[in-house]
DNA sequence: CGGATAATGAGCGGTAAA
DNA sequence: TTTACCGCTCATTATCCG
C-alpha cells in the first residue's frame, strides 16, 4: 500500500465557500441526548500521523471554536477524527441550544395559509363537474387519502389526524407522523427514553409548509384525472433514449421545467423504469412535476438497464465519459467469442441483477449439449431452453458447452466502476453481486451529470442519498468534477466501506461524511451541513426498487412497499434542502 | 469437536410492454 | 403471443471460534 499517496493534506482542503458564509447557530439541542450515528469526516491521516495543529486548524476551519476543538481532541485523542467530530457536533449542539421555540401553530404566516387552504378546498369541490353526483368527501377523508398516498399507513394517518385535530394541515400531520416514526425507531434502538425529542417543526421555514400545501393542492387537482383517465399514465418510450444518448440522432428536445423544480439545488433521482403502473406518475408528481427521462443503459454499455431519471439538470451540451465502454458482449469479453454458438444471437446482456445463475443450471446446460454431435446445432427446443436460461441469467460462453455467470469484476467493468471497486475488505462475493446489482450504470449517469462540469469548475457539494457503492460519486469523479464536500447516506455498512475506501484510494481532497439512515437526516442536521458547506449543489438518489421491480415475486407492493417507500424520504430531504437554500438566500 | 453464524444455492410467478 | 425484470425465502453447506 502506498501510504504516501493516501494522505490528504488538510491544508489543501477547499473551504473557500465558507468565506462568504456566516455560520449560524445550529439548533441541534434536541439531539444532544441522542447518540449520533456514525459520522466520519475524511481527513485521512498520512502514515506519519498528522500534526496536532493541522487537525486543530482543520476543525476550526469547519467553523468550530478553538476552545471546543482543543477540548474534543483532548477527549478523543488526535487520531480519532471521527470521534472528535462527533464530540464537536454534540458540544456545538449544547452551546448553540436556542431558547425553546414556539410551536409553528402560532406562526402567523402559517395561520394565513391554513385559511386559504380551506378556501381552496371548498372551491374545488364546487368546481368539479366531471365527477358525477358529488359525493360528499370530507376534509378529513381527503387528508387521510393524501397521507396514504404519500406513503403513510392508514393507521398512522388516522392517529395523526386524531392527535392533531381534523383541521390540522398536511404539514403538521406529516410532522407528527415523522416524529412518531422517529421515536418509534429510537425506542427500538435506545429503549423508551423519558426525554425523547418532541415532534418538531422547521421553525421559521414557512416555505416548506407552503410547498406541502402546494403539493396537496396539486394532488387534489390531479387526482380525478389519474383515476378517470388512463391516458395520463406515464408510458415508456421505445427506443429508450431519454433526451438523447451519445452517437444517436435525436430530435432536439426542448423542455421547460416547472417553476417549483428549478434549483438550486440540482437534483437527480433514479429508479427502475418498469415499475407498476402509476408509480412514475407519483414520483413525478412529488418531484415538482418534472417529466422522467427514461434511458436504457444498453446505449452506453454492453448490458441493458432500463431506468427512469427525474432531474432538473440542463439537457444540452452533454458529453460522454471517455473512453466509451464496449457496447457488445464480444467487445467486452473477447474470450467468449471462441465458444459462442452461432445460434446464440445475443449481442448485449440483459439487466445485471443482484442474483446470479447457479452452478446446477450451467451444469444442466452442459449436459443438454453433450447429448448432441458437437459439429451440429442442437435441436431448436434445446436451443430455446438454453437461450431462455442464458437471457434470464446473463450467462456467457466460457468453454466448450460451458456457460457461466459473470464474475463480479466483469460486472464492475460493465457498470463503469474501477476494477476491484467492490472487492476485498471483508466483502463477500454475494455482497458484491448484491451491491453491484443495485447500482447505477456510471456512464449513463455521468452523461446526464456532465453538464455540471462547466457550471462548477471549482467542484460541487454533493448530497448523495441511497448512495450504494457510490455510482454518483464515481461518475462525478470520472467527469473531472471535484468533490468538495460529500454527505453520503446508505443503510449498508458494506456499501459505506466501499465508498470510503474508494474515496481514500482516489486521493479525494474534499470531505466525506457518511450516514447510515436517511430517516436520521432531519431539518436540523441538514441545516447544519448546509451551513457548514454553503449548501448542496446536487442532491442525487436512487431509492430502493425492490418493491417495484418485476424480479420480486413476493413483495412487489409498489411505492408503498417496505423499502420503496423511502422514496418519500428522498422527496422530504430534497424539499428541505430547497427550503433551507431559499431561506438562506 | 461442536455449536453458532455466515455464505450459498434452489426454487419461487406475475406484470407490463412490445 | 413472447420477453424481461437494481428479488425474496428458506434449506443446506461452509466457515468461524471456543
TrEMBL record:
Keyword line: DNA-binding, Methyltransferase, Nucleus, Repeat, S-adenosyl-L-methionine, Transferase
PROSITE patterns in the cross-refs: SAM_MT_C5, SAM_MT_DRM, UBA
One of the protein's GO biological processes: methylation
InterPro entries, A to Z: C5-Methyltransferase, C5_MeTfrase, SAM-dependent_MTases_sf, SAM_MeTfrase_DRM, UBA
A GO cellular component annotation in the UniProt record: nucleus
Keyword Transferase attached: yes
Record-listed E.C. numbers: 2.1.1.37
Localization in the cell: Nucleus
Major localization class: nucleus
Transmembrane segments: none
SAM-dependent MTase DRM-type domain residues: 253-584
Active site (catalytic residues): 545
GO molecular function terms listed in the Swiss-Prot or TrEMBL record: DNA (cytosine-5-)-methyltransferase activity; DNA binding
Domain UBA as annotated: residue spans: 50-91
Family designation: Belongs to the class I-like SAM-binding methyltransferase superfamily. C5-methyltransferase family.
This protein's name: DNA (cytosine-5-)-methyltransferase
Organism field: Cucurbita maxima (Pumpkin)
Lineage: Eukaryota, Viridiplantae, Streptophyta, Embryophyta, Tracheophyta
Gene name, Swiss-Prot/TrEMBL: LOC111486261
Amino acid at each position: 500500500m502506498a501510504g504516501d499517496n493516501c494522505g490528504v493534506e488538510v491544508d489543501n482542503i477547499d473551504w473557500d465557500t465558507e468565506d462568504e458564509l456566516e455560520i449560524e447557530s445550529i439548533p441541534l439541542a434536541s439531539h444532544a441526548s441522542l447518540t449520533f450515528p456514525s459520522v466520519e469526516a475524511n481527513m485521512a491521516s498520512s502514515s506519519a500521523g498528522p500534526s496536532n495543529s493541522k487537525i486543530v486548524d482543520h476543525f476550526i476551519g469547519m467553523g468550530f471554536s478553538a476552545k471546543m476543538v482543543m477540548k474534543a481532541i483532548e477527549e478523543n485523542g488526535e487520531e480519532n477524527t471521527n470521534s472528535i467530530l462527533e464530540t464537536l457536533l454534540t458540544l456545538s449542539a449544547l452551546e448553540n441550544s436556542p431558547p425553546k421555540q414556539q410551536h409553528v401553530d402560532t406562526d402567523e404566516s402559517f395561520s394565513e395559509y391554513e385559511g386559504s387552504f380551506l378556501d381552496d378546498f371548498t372551491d374545488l369541490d364546487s368546481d368539479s363537474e366531471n365527477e358525477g353526483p358529488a359525493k360528499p368527501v370530507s376534509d378529513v377523508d381527503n387528508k387521510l387519502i393524501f397521507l396514504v398516498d404519500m406513503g403513510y399507513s392508514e393507521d398512522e394517518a388516522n392517529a395523526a389526524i386524531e392527535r392533531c385535530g381534523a383541521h390540522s394541515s398536511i404539514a403538521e400531520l406529516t410532522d407528527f407522523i415523522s416524529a412518531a416514526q422517529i421515536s418509534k425507531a429510537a425506542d427500538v434502538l435506545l429503549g423508551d427514553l423519558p426525554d425523547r425529542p418532541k415532534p418538531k417543526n422547521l421553525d421559521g421555514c414557512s416555505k416548506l409548509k407552503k410547498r406541502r400545501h402546494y403539493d396537496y393542492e396539486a394532488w387534489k387537482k390531479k387526482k380525478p384525472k389519474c383515476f378517470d383517465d388512463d391516458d395520463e399514465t406515464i408510458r415508456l418510450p421505445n427506443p429508450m433514449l431519454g433526451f438523447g444518448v451519445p452517437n444517436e440522432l435525436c430530435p432536439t428536445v426542448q423542455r421547460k421545467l416547472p417553476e417549483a423544480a428549478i434549483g438550486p439545488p440540482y437534483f437527480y433521482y433514479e429508479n427502475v423504469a418498469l415499475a407498476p403502473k402509476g408509480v412514475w406518475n407519483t414520483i413525478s408528481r412529488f418531484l415538482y412535476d418534472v417529466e422522467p427521462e427514461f434511458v436504457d443503459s444498453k446505449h452506453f454499455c454492453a448490458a441493458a438497464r432500463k431506468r427512469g431519471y427525474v432531474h432538473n439538470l440542463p439537457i444540452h451540451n452533454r458529453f460522454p465519459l471517455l473512453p466509451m465502454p464496449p457496447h457488445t458482449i464480444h467487445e467486452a469479453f473477447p474470450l467468449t467469442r471462441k465458444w459462442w454458438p452461432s445460434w446464440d444471437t445475443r449481442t448485449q446482456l440483459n439487466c445485471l441483477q443482484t442474483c446470479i445463475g447457479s452452478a446446477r443450471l450451467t451444469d444442466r446446460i452442459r449436459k443438454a449439449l453433450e447429448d448432441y454431435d458437437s459439429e451440429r446445432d442442437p435441436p431448436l427446443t434445446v436451443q430455446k431452453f438454453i437461450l431462455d436460461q442464458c437471457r434470464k441469467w446473463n450467462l456467457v460462453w466460457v468453454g466448450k458447452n460451458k456457460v457461466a455467470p459473470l464474475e463480479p469484476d466483469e460486472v464492475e467493468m460493465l457498470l463503469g466502476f474501477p476494477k476491484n471497486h467492490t472487492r476485498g475488505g471483508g466483502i463477500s462475493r454475494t455482497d458484491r453481486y448484491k451491491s453491484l446489482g443495485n447500482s447505477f450504470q456510471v456512464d449513463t449517469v455521468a452523461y446526464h451529470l456532465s453538464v455540471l462540469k462547466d457550471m462548477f469548475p471549482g467542484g460541487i457539494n454533493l448530497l448523495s442519498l441511497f448512495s450504494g457503492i457510490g455510482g454518483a460519486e464515481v461518475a462525478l469523479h470520472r467527469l473531472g468534477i471535484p468533490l468538495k464536500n460529500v454527505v453520503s447516506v446508505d443503510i449498508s455498512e458494506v456499501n459505506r466501506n466501499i465508498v470510503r475506501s474508494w474515496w481514500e484510494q482516489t486521493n479525494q481532497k474534499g470531505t466525506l461524511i457518511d450516514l447510515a439512515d436517511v430517516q436520521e437526516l432531519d431539518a436540523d442536521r441538514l441545516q447544519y451541513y448546509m451551513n457548514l458547506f454553503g449548501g448542496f449543489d446536487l442532491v442525487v438518489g436512487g431509492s430502493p426498487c425492490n418493491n417495484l421491480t418485476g424480479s420480486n415475486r413476493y413483495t412487489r407492493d409498489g411505492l408503498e412497499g417496505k423499502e420503496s417507500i423511502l422514496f418519500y424520504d428522498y422527496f422530504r430531504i430534497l424539499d428541505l434542502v430547497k427550503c433551507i437554500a431559499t431561506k438562506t438566500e
